[in-house]
Design goal:
Length: 399
């Protein structure tokens, strides 16, 4: 049985995740060398060493969740503590959290920053997948099947908006939309949710207009018209990002030979790491990252569609949408298609919270895939094979 289970794992998916994470570790080293010395006055490999530690921890966490039966997570004993801890983690940030980048979104523990909103994304995926899977028999009853799970989503999103972190809050809402659209509810209820969301958005915008429409946030939209108009102020981040992307060409300047990371491109090892990749490895390096991310997302969608268990199917689709949406938002922001949001690039950007959360999500996705493959390859064949007594009937007939 153990041999059958091992054969059921999607090793191509695991291999791509490992390769992309190691590639990200190399690029973090390249992108953060000058930043570590200039800003923090530490060794050039400071962020590389921390990311390496995060990656080792993440590998163990991934292995655990890849072997942990995902179906256990839909039990009340698992869901209730997860919901409580996620709400307490986001609520406590206003008392014990530190302020950075005009937002109070991190805990500082022993020199390590922990961002609870990263783990809240995964908590929302697990919770909505579990609840909507249980409500399949009455998923189209609006008051009973549709609305109750959204209370948790509203609380999570509200706490993140108050930090304020509009990028992560918007990302969580988009992930929730993907799960809702995949849950099987009818178009009438989806239309009702859209209307309710529009009304809620209007109310939130009215009460938080000073934060939402502040001069700093609105400048992220106006700078898209011409980021080079005010290079030293509003357009500083985006203009240097575009210069890095444009100077790389097809093959890039060479690994470690980028110029924009030398004090010109802020946060080059986190939000803007794809710009460093474009400058040093060119279009080939960017294409490699996009192909790897695309493979993970499409593989996850395939797993979700193949899985016969509603909970596993929604989990796979939710995790895939999280990785896909987050990748698109990061790439679009860095290239000036949409305003910058501060969303990291999955598996590549520096960050312990993001990497460990992705390790949990990736482990769950691989576990869902394993169970789906096992049931399809072994249980189905066993069910289809004729009983031994029936197989001997022709022999008796000949006698």
């Amino acid at each position: 049985m153990l041999k059958k289970i091992l054969k059921s794992y999607d090793f191509s998916l695991i291999a791509v995740m490992i390769v992309l994470s190691i590639f990200g570790l190399v690029m973090v080293y390249s992108a953060s060398m000058a930043f570590a010395v200039q800003r923090y006055h530490v060794a050039p490999d400071h962020f590389f060493q921390k990311q390496k530690m995060f990656l080792i921890v993440a590998a163990g966490i991934f292995a655990f969740f890849a072997g942990f039966p995902y179906k256990i997570m839909k039990s009340t004993k698992m869901l209730v503590p997860m919901v409580i801890l996620s709400l307490l983690g986001l609520g406590g940030i206003f008392v014990f959290g530190k302020v950075a980048g005009n937002a109070q979104s991190w805990y500082e523990i022993g020199g390590i920053s922990i961002q609870p909103s990263e783990f809240a994304k995964l908590a929302v995926i697990i919770y909505l997948s579990a609840v909507y899977a249980k409500k399949q028999n009455y998923i189209n009853e609006f008051n009973r099947g549709v609305v109750p799970p959204l209370i948790y989503l509203i609380l999570i999103s509200g706490l993140i908006l108050l930090q304020p972190d509009f990028g992560t809050a918007g990302l969580i809402l988009l992930i929730a939309v993907s799960i809702i659209l995949s849950s099987g509810m009818n178009g009438k209820n989806i239309f009702k949710l859209i209307a309710m969301g529009g009304i809620a958005g209007g109310i939130i915008s009215f009460f938080l207009q000073e934060k939402i429409f502040s001069e700093v946030r609105m400048s992220r939209f106006t700078v898209l018209e011409d980021p080079f108009r005010d290079v030293l102020n509003e357009g500083f981040h985006l203009s240097n990002s575009l210069l890095a992307i444009g100077s790389g060409g097809i093959t890039g300047l060479g690994l470690g030979k980028g110029v924009q990371k030398l004090g010109y491109l802020p946060e080059s090892h986190t939000d803007f790491i794809i710009a460093v990749i474009a400058e040093e490895l060119g279009l080939i390096g960017v294409a490699f990252v996009i192909i790897c991310l695309g493979f993970i997302v499409l593989r996850g969608i395939h797993i979700g569609l193949k899985c016969k268990d509603p909970f596993g199917s929604l989990l796979a689709l939710g995790i895939s949408s999280m990785i896909g949406i987050q990748s698109i938002v990061n790439l679009a922001g860095v290239s000036g298609v949409i305003p910058l949001t501060g969303v990291p690039l999955p598996f590549v950007s520096y960050g312990g919270s993001s990497l460990i959360q992705l390790a949990v999500a990736a482990g769950i996705l691989v576990n869902v895939s394993m169970f789906a493959n096992y049931e399809q390859n072994y249980k189905t064949k066993k069910a289809e094979s004729p009983p031994a007594t029936l197989a001997r009937e022709p022999i008796r007939a000949r006698r």
